[in-house]
Amino acid sequence: MGGTLAEARSYEDPCGIARALDRVGERWALLVVRELYFGPKRFGDLRAGLPGASPNVLSQRLRELERAGVVARRKLDPPAKTWVYELTPWGRELEGALLALARWGSRATPVPKGELGADALMLALKTTFYGRDDLQAHVDLALGDDRFQLDVSAGNLTVMRGRAAAADAMIETDAPTLRRLVFGDQSLTAALRGRAVRIEGNQRLAARVLRSFRRSTVAGVTSRR
User: Fold this and answer.
1) The whole model's pTM is what?
2) Which residues form the domain of 147?
């Protein structure tokens, strides 16, 4: 499984780690997987999520990931008729490794300046969620042009790309503001007062969801994500 890669780029090592790195170890490759984790994306959307990758490099990585069986390209049904990239079933099996890397890396300091993209922020939410078992919520999250569903149940958080069909609350903001809200750099009261965030529906439940994330720490020192 996984296709054949150019011999010059292979470790030629039968170890599973080496064989995995043969397929997703190139620069930007795992970040492409991150961008597709929550669902399909067009090439332009991938570029927006990975602004540091040139179009040529991004195209090359996508071709390599396709050959490796990690990513697939398909045409959407009418009326869209546009091409998107998505993870294959084998590519989706990277979930555990991706989340583990996200948790491990979030404890590394110093934290680079800049903001998290929408998909990177959603991954951060999954790795820092610690909701109570009694918390049940379906939240429609609007971050500019990006839309996600947050489903909280039995102490677990599920995140999916797209609009929630039946939401208890809708939170509309931007990725930098949401990052500050969930990791404690800004209060919800101040954000609402300054109109940096808008909540429709059950505001109390939405506030509980926003308080259900913890900051990562290194050697007892809190680090901003």
Assistant:
1) 0.86
2) 118-222
